[in-house]
Amino acid sequence: MLELRDVSRRYGQTIALDGLSLAVPEREVVGFVGPNGAGKTTAMRVVMGVLEPDAGEVHWRGEPATRAARATFGYMPEERGLYPKMRVDRQLRYLASLHDHDSRAAEAAAARWIERLGLGERAQQRVEELSLGNQQRVQLAAALVHDPPVLVLDEPFSGLDPIGADVMAEVLHERARAGAAVIFSSHQLDLVERLCDRVAIVDGGRIVAAGRVEELRAERSRPRLRVAVDGAATGWTDELDGVDLVERDEHGVLLELRDGADDQQVLDSARRAGRVRLFARARPSLAELFREVVER
Amino acid sequence: MTLRRAALLVARREFGERIRQRSFQLSTAATILVVAAVALAAGLLGDDTAERYTVGAHDREAIAIAEAAGTAAGAFDVRLELRRYASAEQARAAVAAERVDAAIVDGAIVARARPPGDLEQALQAAARDVRAATALRAEGLSSAEARRALAPPPLAVRALDGADEDERRGVAFAASLLLYLQLIVFGLAVATGVVEEKASRVVEVLLAAVPPRALLAGKIAGIGLLGLGQLGLAAVVGLAVASASGAIDVDGAHADVLAVVLAWFLLGYLLWSAIYAIAGVIVSRQEDLQASSTPVTVVLVACYLVAFPALDAPGSPLAVVASLVPLSSPIVMPVRVAVGEPGAAEIAASLGLLALAIAALVPLAARIYEGGVLRMGKPLRVREALRVGRAG
Description:
By secondary structure, chain A is α/β, with parallel strands linked by helices. Chain A has 10 helices and 14 strands.
């Protein structure tokens, strides 16, 4: 388990992290989401030891993460970084060797990831000669080339085409299945919802919600119903007790039940109003949960 | 991974990637070509003063004289070519037809007008030797005894001002120019390399694996090794060509100068590359490097300019001070050594001061590097980077 414990960090007057605590279990993929400037990149830099926190600690497998432990982590920084004039294969071999692979192991690892990420024909080209999507693949290979037990990826999906995104998603899952603790940040909440075992929502340098998406949904105080009634008058919901209308569109209405309100009474009212075509518990999307906790 | 191993890996990349760059290969080739051309030109210009003459001869004595004159011609700054003729008449005819400059016929030098003075001197001297040898053999000496009697050891030449002063000045000038160029080229390479890693943001990936000190140390070592290799190659080629073309006689003194130049390059490079690394790390883009590295380069150029007066007056106060002050000593001291001016104590003092300066500056540069290497955006103040480096 990778843990951030009460980590704080300021830049001058700006507070980037304000006692942030977060856990990334091994074998799981954690999505790290939050508005711009919430502290995601700073938190990831602190995990990697690229940035020193003002307070708090990073722990790995129950102990404070040492420099040597961190050197085993795989990292994809927000600002992509590779030597533009260096060949793809040499670059990956070099990075593997910096992560303590001897030259034979470095060569094998570089070859394996070049193959796995479909870069075979580009291996002997310089990075600057590659398309942005392919540069992104090299960047991922650079993070993976030493078989890291922890993967810290800042916005790995930005700039990827759908096929590239599929490959990325596949690889992240593969690494988690192989035992790695994986955390990545993203603004694509549908993708995070689909891909992640857990989600951590950060705002103002603190975690405002964290857990499995189902748990986050359960934590929501009020259940919602989506109801569609053919032939009903527009105002049929007005008579309902303890029910708020959240939104209305051409497909029907979204209702929120206050404490004690009975969904069966809502159903009865709907049947009286017309022919009920849809009556379902509305599962809030991650995007909705996100808006809710961040706007609060 | 130890700091040393990390630095070694970084150095290996710097060396390997740069030596593969076409621009580096071209600049190395250009440096060596220029050095070789200068050395060759110096040799050819020196040799062009020797006049060439052809001399005709037909009898045994005449041929012996012409051959002896040819062998000893260097002493008179002339070159002689011998042409043999079947008869005295043919030799005379060759002179008349200007096919030869002179001929030795029946014990006389025959020329169309009076022969040039240097040619006549060379032939007369050879004739004296040949005739004296003939006379000595006639007195019963063996030819070996005759040769010994005729070729006593020459007087040694001791010039109070140093006979090879021009040569030494030439070597000293070349040494200072090469040192200056290498310091500026490879110092700037360090600064550019630091900025390249910041601008491409690869530095964050690297720092996740290795400490900043290893990154800086490896970069300086890898680039320095390349500079040392290039300098050594240029110096060896230059000396070899100069020696082959006759511009200088390579002896132990030149090997000493070469060793001094390489040693001072190594120390001077350590000092200057640390300064250039600071100029690099306080900016984030190549466009800003110009502004931060120019003051450094200006000081380096000034140090080089001080080397010129030191060539003419190696004992002047300016030269002495400049060869002790660590910034200029790497360029000025080798010049004075090449001219043969300073004593061992002065050299030791210069080296000691330089080593002290390096010991003080390199950790400072490392700290500034640590403080500035992840700071992106507008150029940093050195003091600010130092503060961050100390805190971090």
